[in-house]
Amino acid sequence: MKQKISFRLPITIIAAFFVMLTAAGSAQAELLIRITEGADSAIPVSVVPFAENGSMPVGDKLSSIVQADLAMSGEFRPLPPEKMLSLPSKRSDVYFRDWRLLGQRYVLVGELTRTGDRVEARYELFDVNREERILGETAGAPASNIRSLAHHVSDKVYEAITGAPGAFSTKLAYVTLERENGKSRYRLQVSDIDGKRAGIRLESKEPILSPAWSPDGRKLAYVSFETGKPAIFVHELSSGQRTKVADFPGLNSAPAWSQDGQSLLMTLSKDGNAEIYQMNLQSRKVTKLSNHWAIDTEAAWDSAGKGIFFTSDRSGGPQIYYMAKPGAEPRRITFGSRYNARPRPDNTGKYVYYVHQRDRAFTIARTNLETDEETVLTRTESDESPSVSPNGRMLIYATKQSGESVLTVISADGGAAYSLPASEGDVRDPAWGPIVR
Amino acid sequence: MKLSVQAKVVALLFSAGLFAGCSTTGENMDDGAYGSDVQPIDQDGGSTVYGGGDQGGISSSSMTEDERMEIEKQAEQAALRDITTFYFDFDTSEIKPEARDVLMAHARYLSSNPGQKVRLEGHGDERGSKEYNLALGERRANAVQRFLIVNGASRGQMETVSYGEEKPAVMGSTESAWAQNRRVELVFE
Questions:
Q1: Along the 189 residues of chain B, how does pLDDT read in single tens digits?
Q2: Among the four residues A89, A209, A395, A396, which has the most C-beta atoms within 10 Å?
Q3: Which B positions 149-168 lie with beta carbon below 8 A of chain A?
Q4: Domain membership flag for residue A369
Q5: How many structural domains are present in chain A?
Q6: Which residues contact A160 (CB under 8 A, 6 or more apart)?
Q7: ∠ CA(A77), CA(A80), CA(A86), 5° rounding?
Q8: How much is the pTM?
């Protein structure tokens, strides 16, 4: 197995590392240079503040939200509006020479029109070098929902430039934990991927973990200890209706949806030790898919919905395995270190992401399934719960900063990205929701 | 006799990495966690253990050597049973050799008190993956359960639950904290 180690750090932790690197000497100082290179590869794009016809709701401007979206993907480097030479809102006002002078590859212009309770956006995206319009669209939303409209524009711009669908309109589920006076308060929350518009869906004194999105984005499956032991619930988000689907003796954990939304993979230990089962959600019938005295857990379907990745410690410590179809003889995927767990394949079928122990640190790594090449993506020390965006371009995971759990988003190749601010207490167990058409 | 019990307790503490944590990291122990995990050996001893000796009419000379040894043995057993938390190394569910005497004492107690129930709560440290740690916590609880069954307790007296890394005994990301969090707790009802 080849093991390529490349480190690229989220921007947010560079400062902390700089202190460490200075102390550690020059050997690791190169890492910082690579980070800078990574950031330089981001595509320069200008999101020109949109012209406004009529009064707009207070709060963030649509173009500011689009700019922030593109920046947080790690793939774009938006030009701050104060550096722009002009602020065009339609094609006839776009002087390509000016934008070339500013080193820009793409320019987004547009205008917003308020009509009653609705806002309509007309926008155009230009390729500066080719002096061509590559996107032109109008889209509308209730004035109270300008944020959704902005994320929609971001998705369109992202797709026009990269060819991959944007994931800015998708949602995150995660669990927050506050501890005070010896009491814990777990909250299952859903927010936009920039952490905005967070809403509490469930609150409990006992642990909530492992939220998993149904493929249609309407339901979450998760583990809750509210009955004193782990049980798996399915929670319909629109109605708040909850169903306890698995409450067998022992473990009921690690739920993962099938692509048709009809069944859940889960870990049960009702027959003595942790094995992977598939539950038909209609009949509630469970079928055992793994059979080994070791721990088998953390199952997830591959991108084709045919094979299953999972964690097993049958070799002595946790490693990633793959069964080509349910119940097939597993094949070991990871060999690079003694601890690899919690596999999450991307939508392309090319990569699987997981928790990877490197020396004493627990990082996030990925393996290229075509070449078996392993790449360590993070250099923080207590990383866990990786979850890949539905377009395969970004990754969210939980890590620690100053003793608190935070969520960090990086581009899927490890490039710089952002941390989600923790409101209060710990934030953990992120799950990136699907693209809902 | 009593000294040897204390020696065992001290050995157990060492095995948990409690003292080791202090010496290597220079950090102070969390008193709260220390107190809840490990009771001072003499705390209950005065009343429960030596109560028999205070009964007025019975002079010590009337006790046979065997009786005296039996009382001392019971005292030792009761003292051992004050320890209800058992520690594990990273990513293992192996019961440490120094935990065996204490677990034997619990097994004997459960065996001679069939109505007594106990809940075995398995835990892991924060490192690694949550769901894997949940399974590991269960395996630790199961290992303790098996040990107790083999030594006389019955399955019906016990239930196991794993909290994985969700309920640390000690907060923090130090070797000492991790060592105290990789544990199985016996909770008697």
A1: 444 555 555 455 445 444 433 333 333 333 333 233 333 333 333 222 233 334 444 455 677 888 899 999 888 888 899 999 999 999 999 999 999 999 999 999 999 999 999 999 999 999 999 999 999 999 999 999 999 999 999 999 999 999 999 999 999 899 999 999 999 999 998
A2: A395
A3: 160-164, 166-167
A4: yes
A5: 3
A6: A125, A134, A135
A7: 120
A8: 0.83
